[in-house]
Amino acid sequence: MPRYHVLVNPVSGAGEAPDFVEHRVLPLLNSLRIDYDVHVTKCMNDAGRIGRELLFEREQRVKEGKVARDEVTTVVVGGGDGTAHEFMEGVLEGVRGGAPLGRWELVTLPLGTANALHSTLFPPDSVPVPLTERLEPLIAPGNMHALASLIRALEGGAPRSLPVTQTTLFTSSGTPSSDPIPSHIVLSTALHANILADSEAFRAEMPGIERFKRAAADNITVFFPAKARLLPSAAGVRVYDPRTRDWKEGPEELEGPFAYFLSVTTTPRLEPTFVVAPTLARLPPAPHEGTMDIVVLRPMRDPHVAAAGDQGVAWAPRAKEVLGAAYDDGRHIALLYGAEGTVDISARQPQKDPGGEPVVEVFRCAGFEWTPTEEGHAKSHIVCADGSLYTVPPGGMARAKVMESHAGEGFWVWG
Q1: Which residues form a coiled coil (predicted)?
Q2: How buried is residue 178: exposed, middle or buried, by Cβ count under 10 Å (0-12/13-18/19+)?
């Protein structure tokens, strides 16, 4: 079995990674006589340095004839989604430097804050991963969920493809202002991105999740002036129809303002119970399809809001209701506007009559271009890639596209 690389971020989540790795992961690998190297991050973005070093080290070993070109590199991520993001960003930076990408297989450990990827692979109510006679005496029942991805890797089988979105920021003249920014969990603008941006100001006084609630309250009435162009995949641009519970042909151009704009490629849920993009699970894309699902709220489509004097205040309760329904197994994508803008927020299935338009728009495509339309509206220029924040230059745009993957190279995850 190839050597494992165990990546430990000591400040990820509640800071439990070093203890968990030392007392749960390494004893398991030792018992199975699996060789491994431990890499501990020392500062912010250090996981990226480790990713680059492993990439170049592997390429050197290939040149020396010590390993085959197609050998898999397995990395156990002792941290959360942010640690994995930094690691993959470092690998891809090395690829831009000329090194071949190769094949990377990640093992997730839920040691971060949200652990969206692990929660998608192993939902809280999922059946535990079965243990063979070889592993049963080595793993305590209480550790089954946390070690589920590692169990999958040790037992073999086939890992899942892990699509990566590459986002580039452009200036007003159309020239890139950034290297491509990778993300494997979420790429967002509007409300989601600004909650993360504003929450940092409250971190000192609110170290827990309360700071996110405060930032959400401050941004729930904000409309984000922008336009979006959706990039077609081989199947074009599709939009989810809650009446048929299937895709139909969708538009390529979306006019704002927007309240919510969030894209995902792999993870229907961003938290264990927050299922923001249930279409990824109910209508999964084919392997290597190269698409993302984009969840959109455009407040001016709400007849009640469009007719209101203070449109932001009128929109706030609707936004809370809709996003609250996402915690109920993704029920928000079934909601429809009634004839006068009413919404049956308790509905689990759309009404049989034509009714109004879907409250939540869900698109499937290869990527998008996000162009803020008011230079003075700073909040509409913020982009979030796996929790890291970036700013679209004045007059510029952000272009996001799912990275092409091939059978022999790219990123996979055990789950």
Answers
A1: none
A2: middle
